[in-house]
Structures are given as structure tokens and as C-alpha cells.
Amino acid sequence: MKALRAYAPASIGNVSLGFDVLGAALAPVDGSQLGDVVDITAAESFSLTTVGTFAHKLPAGADNNIVTKCYHFFCQAMEKHGKATTPVALTLHKNLPIGSGLGSSASSIVAAFAALNGYFDCPFDEDTLLHMMGELEGQISGSIHYDNVAPCYQGGMTLMTGAQEPVTLSLPLNPTWYYAICYSGISVSTAAARDILPKQVEMSTALTFGRQLGVFVHALHAGEFDLAASVMKDVIAEPYRKSLLPGFDDARAFSEREGALAFGISGSGPTVFAVCSSEQQAQRIARYLDENYIQNEDGFSRVCQIPQAGTVVSPLNENDTAPAL
Ligand SMILES: Nc1ncnc2c1ncn2[C@@H]1O[C@H](COP(=O)(O)OP(=O)(O)O)[C@@H](O)[C@H]1O
Ligand SMILES: N[C@@H](CCOP(=O)(O)O)C(=O)O
């Protein structure tokens, strides 16, 4: 009987300078996993079981879980294309904290679609799946944005095109950059953190945003990584969102003193990230954040890099255990 497991990594939405249009996948350098997992097997009727560190924070009832919504959405898409589906049992390993700024809902959505697509012999191509994933992410966060689902699914650092296809462009990675990330333990709703943003931006802000993004993309392609880092500044969301994040200014000040190349909010927060030029520097900043930015026992920090690989779908063996965070 066919049984699959899909692992979908955490991601940094916006990467400071690219509100809604730039995102990056995350992989801890210690080799541990940081992401949700969905297992899929055949069943007589549909079911969703939730396990994992943050399963108890999910809304009660399988019908309220975004993974169930993905299943129904996928079945409808199959039907539209004249393809049959059969009932499945899904298990969501909810390893990412909810409302963390680590693309938690995106991770569940991407793992669910990747597992379903794999199970039903890959009826949909990458762009079609990305549109489905973006649609579901939009249902949960208030508006469609691909900056978590795309890097989570495809890996690397991705720039959204706004076109039907390709949905994304993959940007060159700098293998010498390390990312100290820290989740403070509090929950910030993405929808609420979007609501507090002004609906229009000043002309000068729009010019800075466009200039920075252009310079960043050029600099990555040219291998001018210091130039790329110099424009990693959030002129759209950080000025408004940082008020939701206790300790943000101190964390930024420490990272700058330590010589971090850039510092910002991951997605809508509360997770923050520092871009570092060495693993040692990232470890020092992660230690500081551990001791000073974390607000409760749910918080954690990790030193990560951006992996080339995104979601991985593999055969599920009977004795596979839940991956730890
Ligand atoms: N599998 C799931 N993973 C994460 N959130 C889920 C899931 N299913 C339902 N939800 C709900 O979706 C919302 C996700 O909130 P959001 O702030 O967008 O989280 P995140 O920023 O971590 O993706 C929450 O209200 C949460 O209860
Ligand atoms: N571009 C979005 C990213 C939200 O990321 P999340 O990890 O907080 O869901 C935004 O900034 O609103």
C-alpha cells in the first residue's frame, strides 16, 4: 500500500526588503529539521490526525485545520480535471509554532499539497500547485502571498514574478551567509499584522523599495554580497510591526554591534533574523537572542542557512517516528 511523508521547511517571508515578493527557506546547520510534516496513507474515509510539539495550539476539530481544507481543495481540482481520488488518512506533525513568522501555515499547506500530489501520482505541475498553495495561504492570512509557500516548496531564495507562470524566480545563494533566527514564543497573527499596515505608501518609500530590490537582485547575480546585504532594509512593514515585538530594538542593536550584515523581522514576526558572515557570529547572536529576546518556554533560536532543497516527499516506512523540532 502506498504511504508517503512530506517534509516542508520553515521560511523567512519578506527577507526584510521584499514585502510579499521575496522569501527564503530555512535549514538548521546542526542538521535538525525545522518544518511541518504530513504523512499520507490509504483509508476507508478521510481523516486528519495531529501530533507534534505545537499540535495542541491548533484550532480544535479537523475541519478547522488548513490541512483538511487543502485536501478538499485538491479533490475539487482533481474532479475539475476529470481525475479520480480515493480517501486518505493524513497525519500532520505540527512542529512549527503558530503565528511565529516562520511560515507555519505555509509549511502545513505545502506539506499537505506535496503529499497529496505525490500520492495521486503527480497530476499537477509546480506552478499549478503553487497557485493552489497561495490560494489556501490567502484564506488563512487575509490575502494571497507566495513568499512563504514558494521557498518552502521549492527551496532557496525565491522572488515572486506576479505572473501566472513561472510564479517564482530562484535567486543565487551566498554559501557563506548564516542566519541566526529566534522565535520569541508569543503569537502574532499574520492577518492582524497585515491589518496594521497603511494601505498606501509614500512616493519616497516606493522608490526606496524598488531601488533596494533592484540592487539586491543585481548584487546577488554579480556575487557582490556586501552590496546585497547593504540594501536588506524593511521600509514597508518593520516601522509599524516592531511595536508588536517586545525587545526588537535591543535585539537589532546587539546584532549590529556584533557586526551582523542585516537584521529584520521574519514574515510578520515575532521571529527575527540576523544575516551573519560566519557561523560563529550567528551562534553569538543566537545565544544573545535566546537569553534576551525569548519571552516564554515556547521560544527558541537556531542557526540556519538557506537550503537549495525545499519540500521533500519520501516513502513512509511503518516504523518512521515523528521528526523532532
Ligand atoms: N495546520 C495549521 N498550521 C498553522 N495554522 C493553522 C493550521 N490550521 C489552522 N490554522 C490556523 O490558521 C491561522 C494561522 O495564523 P498565521 O498567523 O497565519 O500563522 P503563521 O504566520 O504561523 O503562518 C491560525 O489562526 C491557526 O489557528
Ligand atoms: N509577506 C507576509 C509574510 C507572512 O509570513 P508569516 O510567517 O508571518 O506567515 C507578511 O509580511 O505579511
Automatic annotation (TrEMBL):
Q: Name one GO biological process term.
A: threonine biosynthetic process
Report if keyword ATP-binding is assigned.
yes
Q: Which domain of life is it from?
A: Bacteria
Question: Per the database record, which ranges form the GHMP kinase C-terminal domain?
Answer: 218-294
Q: Which Pfam families match?
A: GHMP_kinases_C, GHMP_kinases_N
User: Could you tell me where this protein is found in the cell?
Assistant: Cytoplasm
Name the pathway. Answer: Amino-acid biosynthesis; L-threonine biosynthesis; L-threonine from L-aspartate: step 4/5
UniProt-annotated binding residues for ATP: P97, I98, G99, S100, G101, L102, G103, S104, S105, A106, S107
Which GO MF terms does the UniProt record name?
Answer: ATP binding; homoserine kinase activity
What this protein catalyses is: L-homoserine + ATP = O-phospho-L-homoserine + ADP + H(+)
> Could you tell me the keywords of this UniProt record?
Amino-acid biosynthesis, ATP-binding, Cytoplasm, Kinase, Nucleotide-binding, Threonine biosynthesis, Transferase
What EC identifiers does the entry list? 2.7.1.39
Q: Which SUPFAM superfamilies match?
A: GHMP Kinase, C-terminal domain, Ribosomal protein S5 domain 2-like
- Domain GHMP kinase N-terminal, which positions? 65-156
**Major location category of this protein:** cytoplasm
> What InterPro entries does the annotation carry?
GHMP_kinase_C_dom, GHMP_kinase_C_sf, GHMP_kinase_N_dom, GHMP_knse_ATP-bd_CS, Homoserine_kinase, Ribosomal_Su5_D2-typ_SF, Ribsml_uS5_D2-typ_fold_subgr
GO cellular component terms?
A: cytoplasm
Describe its function.
Catalyzes the ATP-dependent phosphorylation of L-homoserine to L-homoserine phosphate.
- Family according to the record: Belongs to the GHMP kinase family. Homoserine kinase subfamily.
User: This protein is called what?
Assistant: Homoserine kinase
Q: Which organism is it from?
A: Alteromonas australica
